Amino acid sequence: MKHNEKKEQHLSLFLEVCSQNEELRLPLHTSIVMFLLSYCECKSFKVFMVYTSSCSDAFRSQLPVPVGVSWVQLEDLPQLVRSCRLPAAVDESGRLCRAGLAVVLRHIIIKTTEEDPSRKDVLELLGFKKTCLKACAEVSKWTRLCEIGIPSAVEEHLLNPTNQVNRLPPSILTLEQRLAEPVKVHNDDKIRRQKLQEQRLRENEEKQICEASLGPSSQTSDGLELRAALAKLSVDSAPAAATRGSSEIRKVKTTALPPLEHVFAEGLYFTLTDVVLLPCIHQYLCSLQSHAARTLHQLPRLLRWYSRVREVPGVLKAAKDCGMILTVPQVPTSSLQETSGPDSPVSLLQQEEDEETTPQLAFVGGPRPTMTKLKENGIEAIFTLHPCPSWTLPWDSLPKAINPTEGKMSNIRSTRKMQQLNNLVAMVSKLASPGCTVVDFCSGTGHVGIVLAHTLPDCQIILIENKEESLVRAQRRSTELGLKNISFFQANLDYFTGLFHIGQKVPGDSYTQGAHDSLPFCRPNCRPAPT
């Protein structure tokens, strides 16, 4: 089936199908997206499963794919989607593509709540301040672990589950250790004092039972953390009445309060992180159950997390719709008596940290340190005249939406930005020729990319930015200007795989010292523009 870009007037979601041992299977990132769609009951997207030409109809029918999903060959994908790694979501205009697991999942949640504002449970997946997995993997170790580390480790394990079955992947051990750390959440002081009060009440009850010689109490009490988490997940739960603790509890110092234990991956509440981890951990635990069940005793907290996720309303049904039957693995009793050897979680994690720890030198920016470093390494910088000394953009005749003075910046900064744009546009114009593709990396709100699209109408301009707010603003500006030769990617740089002729990147504000701090680079297959 040929996917028609021009007729596309809906949100499209493209997911990958891969083959292993001449059989089709869903990669983990595809399973994660399908699970979230089922859990959210999201109907906002038209879903396309991307396959190669060697995939037959018989193989496709064996996959646990919901009814209504379309199939499209890799060769028939829109050019925008072919330029990135899947999963990818394309908006109604066909010019804004979101790529990468975390970016696509957050977009699904936002669209679901826009279509049905009553789905508060879906909105809660984004966590407090709605920042769950918002930081990109390049800057957040937690996002990198959940989005890349654990899925990659599980995929590698599934390719050869019998190889080194006794050695757990470092990323899995990192998660196991993370679940053992105390939880820090908003307003945790109040919850910790409530936990202390319950602990003391329970101790008094046990003391009274012992004094009455009635033997130990057989009653078990669910942890406060678990009850708080399940209460938040309950649709019919009523807000608890505000009560003030006893003066004795209020006088206890914060450092003396009992820590909170993990219920879910990020603390007390079910979030998008748990959605990402569930398909990965499910397949990993099932594989261990079949090939190395005795290693399960090394993951007690992960098994407890897995059991608690099963209790979340809607999880079992959503998992079943995606072909996952969530059953708690049985740990062999003989393995519980085994002592932890050199491959225990603590020793492996410490070994991994020791291997990765390298001295980090402080970065010193600016032209003078750079010139000094070049000179120390035998490189002499030669200054030449500006390639286009008299060239400047006709700012007075350009639309106001292009001029940096229309943005929210000071006069000094807007002047420097205009000088910077003069230099960049001059250099790109000298390198570009009709039909070239120019990429503006880390484009922000499109100060450079939009000017390039306006001044080079015969070139295709691509803006790549991870921050959604900035990219949406850039798209709005380009729409107001009526630009047709511009497209947008919300993704980390690693997810962009498209071909281009010229690329440029403006340094961040902390490194911007003047007008000569950024230069474009040219691919060899780009012909310089005629002079």
UniProtKB/TrEMBL annotation:
Q: Which domain of life is it from?
A: Eukaryota
Give the record's family classification: Belongs to the GSTCD family.
Record's GO cellular component terms: cytoplasm
Recorded protein name is Glutathione S-transferase C-terminal domain-containing protein
Sorted alphabetically, which CDD domains does this protein's record hold? AdoMet_MTases (cd02440)
- Gene name in the database record: gstcd
Gene3D superfamilies in UniProt: Vaccinia Virus protein VP39
Methyltransferase domain span: 433-493
Xref: InterPro entries: Glutathione-S-Trfase_C_sf (IPR036282), Methyltranfer_dom (IPR025714), SAM-dependent_MTases_sf (IPR029063)
Q: Where is this region: Disordered?
A: 333-352
One Pfam family this chain carries? Methyltransf_31
Compositionally skewed regions (Polar residues) per UniProt: 333-350
